[in-house]
Amino acid sequence: MNFPIQAITLDLDDTLWPFAPIGARIDQVLHDWMLQHSPATAAMFPQAAMRELRERAYVDNPHLHHDLSALRRLALQQALQDSGADAALLEPAYEAFFAARNQVEYYPDALDALQRIAARVPVAALSNGNADLERIGVAHLFAFQLGAREHGAAKPVASIFHAACERLGVAPEHVLHVGDHIEMDVAGAMSAGLRGCWINREAACWNHPSLQPDLQFDTLTGLADWLDANPAASATRSA
């Protein structure tokens, strides 16, 4: 399939790096931090209990579903409060979380492929998560980063895709959104008028009832190869 692409919006978690190892690291880092700085909190909220507290914060605050940072702070605040800890520990605890959250391990193909893609077309990060590309060290490869928190609504709502297109200065039909999630990434983007590329690393079955992805690859390298093989389909950064 060949069609003109002038820019790409790119999901982060489970597209450039797997999130599961990050989540496990966060749980351990926070528990170790509490053991050192607030043992009563660590005792009352071991890792499983802290996860339950975070899940309850999510359920109880649907108006914050687009803001995972706020939800994390709420859970930490509740844990500190319930265990009688000093409220001033909230921000240092959050910083311990955020540092661990931004320690990523790329998929083996991802960083090289990202560099190749970014050399050919402008790439904008578009994520519901709270990764910080400056901390991670790859912000220079992106035109900008737009998160659900900053936008005020999360994928798959059309407005976040349209906001990214507007900042890119490219019409939605000439923007390719790339991600791992069928609904939030590919179907959401296509319903908003963008092209959709599914990165299907797990050999899953496409199950959307009415849409089919414009492109599908099992690695990000597949997309970089497609762009190289279809030079007429993509505009260079200098174009």
Overview of the structural elements:
It holds the Pfam family Hydrolase. InterPro entries: HAD-like_sf, HAD-SF_hydro_IA, HAD_sf, S-2-haloacid_dehalogenase. This is HAD-IA family hydrolase. The protein is an alpha/beta fold and 239 residues long. Helices cover 48% and strands 11% of the residues. The chain is built from eleven helices and six strands. Strands 3-2-1-4-5-6 form a six-stranded parallel beta sheet, sandwiched between helices. The longest helix has 18 residues, at 20-37. It is elongated. It starts with 6 loop residues before the first strand and ends in a 10-residue tail after the last helix. The model has no long low-confidence stretch (mean pLDDT 96).
Strand content: 5-15%
Order of strands across the main sheet: 3-2-1-4-5-6
Structural class: alpha/beta
How large, in whole angstroms, is the Cα Rg? 19 Å
Ends distance: 22 Å
Main sheet attributes: strand count, strand direction, barrel closure? 6 strands, parallel
Task: Tell me the overall shape.
Answer: elongated
Q: Stretches where pLDDT falls below 50 for ≥5 residues? A: none
In N-to-C order, the SSE pattern is EHHHHHHEHEHHEHEEH
Helix content: 40-55%
Mean pLDDT: 96
Q: Total helix count? A: 11
Number of strands: 6
